[in-house]
Amino acid sequence: MNDAIDFWKLIAGTAIFIIGMQFLETALKQIAGRRFKLFLKKHTTSKPKAIAAGAIVTAVLQSSSIVNIMVLAFVGAGVIQMHSALALMLGSNLGTTLTSWIIATLGFKLDIESFALPITGIAGLVMAFTQKESQSRQWLQFALGFGFLFLGLDFMKTGMEASVQNFNLQGYMHYPLIIFLLIGAVITGLIQASSATVALVLSALYANAITLEAGAAVVLGSEIGTTAKLLLAAQGEIADKKRVALGNFLFNVSTSLLVLLFLNPLLNFITGTLAFQNNLMALALFQTLVNIIGIILFYPFLNVFGNYLQQRFSGSQHETFYIQKTDPSEPDLAIPALKKEIELFLHLVSHFIRESFELKANDNKIHPKPIGFDSKPLSKHYEYLKQIHGDILQFYARLLGSTNEESTTLMLNQLISAVRNGMYAAKSINDARADILQLMNSSNEIKYGFFEETKKATDQFLNSMEATEIMPEDKLSADLLELYGSISADYATVTGQLYKDNKYSALRDIEISTLINFNRELFTAFKSYLVAIKDFRLPMEEAEKFRELPGFIR
Predict the structure, then answer these.
(1) In 3D, which of 530, 431, 523 has the Cα closest to residue 484?
(2) Handedness of CA 541, 542, 545, 546 (dihedral sign)
(3) Which conformational region is residue 275 in: left (phi greater than 0), alpha (psi within -120 to 50 degrees), or beta?
(4) Distance between CA atoms of 57 and 96, rounded to whole angstroms?
(5) Which residue in 184, 208, 304 sits closest to 250, CA to CA?
(6) Are the CB atoms for 40 and 74 separated by under 8 Å?
(7) What is the C-alpha separation between 469 and 451, in angstroms, rounded?
């Protein structure tokens, strides 16, 4: 029975440690997330500065994964270049070793419970009575995370000590070091926290459960396993993000395997030449040296390595379908490609609206989609729309600069108005997602009934819009004008019912307010999408008629 308790104490300690790390990360991101991002962006003008910035921010945030995901976002937005992103990641790997030094120097020498329990108890109790969005709650979460970190470490330490007394691990020390490296990679890949893996190894070393060589091999494995989160984060994103994630993976794998070949000489250097006789301190120094070696190895080749990565991945999965290979300086080719891209974009907006209401697709014709698009969550679909929106705007700007004809310029402006309004429609629906989910899952029959009516109206509206794909031009203008009047009248009717109808009198004021705001977002989405179709399908003379309508948006 005691053996089982000791084992679960070790597991619980690991879980508490990871939760503490997550609390620290979340709190620091909320307290100073923007400042960290600005700091990283500012210090990417040279490779040495980028390495230093990556190390500093990671040391403060205590999570290389968070920093690396920030870097992915910068690369995806085109804010930083490939070689700067790679340099930031090299520095990030070094910065994460600060946790190992803190644990090695303080974690096993202090009476952890004497300060971890009061911090955890006081911060947790006060936090429970603090407003969620307040600055003080964020600092309390930071303190709670700090307490959990050391409380988890104490559980891990005592659980490991007791487990060693009841279970002899020395019989497994004859396995080759590559096995321990794989163990470290698997554990870190599963728990997604290299610091927790290192804390486990330090606890095992403290309890004399494993040798320094085996512990060092596990740490090398953790360097590989920590790349899993970044690889997952880059899946389904634009090509540059995949390239950065691959670069980080190759960095860590190459360095870890190389150090494994020279593991004993390096450990002899640490324990002999540098006289680090304390195994805990020796392991912390070992992890630091591994990442310094990685910087030394790759720094001279960052530009070359960056160029190599630029040739990986075609980017066809998540970039534009028609304009990406078209030269905007040739309007005769670029304009037809732009029209096809906008047609696909507007179709994807309609698809996004349908998905938001869990409506069945009603495609009149086959449209291309990125590989694996339908299997991705709705949030990724919205991100993809934003990415394509930005790509189309960039292409439009370059195309506009290559033509001097006024008629062409006016036509391009009308096309880009279609894109802008299509994106606005998607944004309105995305902003209403929380309300959609609340109403969709409501146990209140009035609120659920309102959702069902809205869902039916959305289906009818999109069916009408999709029918315009095969509608003759002379009929299209009149039908769009009629539909515009219909959705405006429906909006006014529903709004009036929400304010006056006894049907909704059983709802609280805040619930009625939610329905009113939701109805407004939906109306805005409908109007925006209708205007997008109008600007895309009608000639300029016909499109101008809509400007005279009351409440018309541009």
Answers:
(1) 530
(2) negative
(3) left
(4) 9
(5) 304
(6) yes
(7) 28
Q: What is the DSSP letter of 502?
A: G
Which residue's structure tokens are 């300029």? 540
The full DSSP string for 128-139 is HTS-TT-HHHHH
Q: How many residues does the chain have?
A: 554
Torsion, Cα of 98, 103, 104, 105 (10° steps): 90
pTM over 0.90: no
Which residue bears the tokens 């891990």?
156
Q: Where are the alpha helices (DSSP H) in 401-472?
A: 406-431, 433-440, 445-467
Q: Name the residue with tokens 């279970």.
A: 167
In 3D space, the residue among 191, 212, 190 whose CA is nearest the CA of residue 202 turns out to be: 212
The type of residue at 495 is T
How confident is the model over 408-444, as pLDDT tens digits?
888 999 999 999 999 999 999 999 999 999 999 999 9
In terms of Cβ atoms closer than 10 Å to its own Cβ (0-12, 13-18, 19+), residue 278 is middle
What does the buried/exposed string (b/e) look like for 362-396 if buried means 16 or more CB atoms within 10 Å of the residue's CB? eeeeeeebbeebeeeeeebbbbbbebbbebbeebb
Tokens of 417: 């108005």
The phi-psi region of residue 482 (left if phi > 0; otherwise alpha if psi is between -120 and 50; otherwise beta) is: alpha
What are the Cα distances from residue 98, in Å, to 53, 139, 199, 275?
14, 21, 12, 20
CA distances from 133 to 139, 309, 432 (A): 11, 41, 21
Both tokens of 301, joined, read 């080749």
What's the pLDDT at 371? 63
Residue 451 near residue 439 (C-beta atoms within 8 A):
yes
